[in-house]
Amino acid sequence: MTDKYAVMGNPIAHSKSPRIHTLFAEQTGQDIEYSAILVERGGFPEAVAGFAAGGGKGLNVTVPFKEEAWELAATHSPRAERAGAVNTLLLTADGNHFGDNTDGAGLVRDLTHNHHCEIAGRRLLLVGAGGAARGVLEPLLAEHPALLVIANRTAPRAVELARHFCDLGRVEGCGLDDVDGHDFDLVINATAASLAGEVPALPAGVISTGTWCYDMMYGNGPTAFMHWASELEAAVTMDGLGMLVEQAAESFRLWRGVRPDTAPVIRTLRMAQEQ
After folding, report:
1. 66 is catalytic
2. Residue 34 domain boundaries
3. Which of 52, 89, 96, 121 could disulfide-link to 59, CB 3.0 to 4.6 Å?
4. Residue 275 lies in a domain
């Protein structure tokens, strides 16, 4: 019997998760069906309940529902517990769903393994303080950067998030304007601005010719954030496609007990992206 999985979010039409998990299933010989489900704001708990009642085995969760997914889960992995955000649900018939967060593991693996980006000893700027940012903070700090600054449109939220993770390393929170005049080795956009073709209101001075820039979002080509960083002569610009595949592999392992090889899947998606 084919097991059913899906990704839920809003927007969701851009999602490559169904293609990724189909490729994973073919590679590993798993009998699954994976779909993308648009969920209206305010309707997430009902959507999850309906999917589970219909025999759904697991869900990926994307913006803007990661914090709601954490609240919905009856139990959490340690990394999800710390993050306060869930991007992977293992569904149970009795509604006692298990929540995990594979975003941070996916981001760090994409940066270090696929892009050969050194994090240890570097100065990092993380833009945004929502569920996406919460999910990657612990794994990023585990790589021992010299400093990690969280900058957000509303500074108090960034400050509070930094306080929550300050036992793991040197982490600070501030408003977007407050980073003006500071140099960073790696700037990570953890906002969903690129999905609307927009860029966070960052001062141009945070980008120098030695800065690597990473957008956790992705599209059919370079994102708005990548274009902005390139215009400021950033050394390297990267989108979140590799992170998407790597975090998906972690979700797949949770659901199916096997971790697929991500390299051929990333290559397939990049080829399609360039056509």
Report:
1. yes
2. 3-101+242-270
3. 89
4. no
